[in-house]
Design goal:
This protein is α+β, with helices and mostly antiparallel strands. The chain has one domain. 44% of the residues lie in helices and 13% in strands. It has four helices and two strands. The chain has a two-stranded parallel ribbon. The mean pLDDT is 78.
């Protein structure tokens, strides 16, 4: 039987890290500089990531003091290694 829970574990860790990042930032004042964050996706652009794109478009990340860049996975790229190498958050 195919174990399809591994991708979900990664997405849960990714969401947990993003949530912790947002919580530790507190509320940012409009005059403060935005912190740049690169969100590494585990796949190419797909509907499952629509919430991330909607949050960027509607300014939720900006309101939390973040300038978020969404980076899709590419062929031969391991998203976990991208984070460990510091190329994504």
């Amino acid at each position: 039987m195919y174990n399809n829970h591994v991708p979900y574990r990664f997405s849960h860790w990714l969401l947990l890290l993003l949530g912790i990042s947002l919580c530790t930032l507190g509320t940012a004042s409009p005059a403060s500089a935005l912190e740049h964050v690169t969100l590494q996706l585990k796949w190419m652009h797909q509907f499952q990531f629509a919430g991330y794109y909607a949050a960027v478009q509607q300014g939720y990340y900006r309101d939390a003091g973040l300038n978020v860049t969404i980076k899709p996975a590419t062929s031969g790229t391991d998203p976990v290694l991208e984070v460990l190498k510091g190329k994504a958050d």
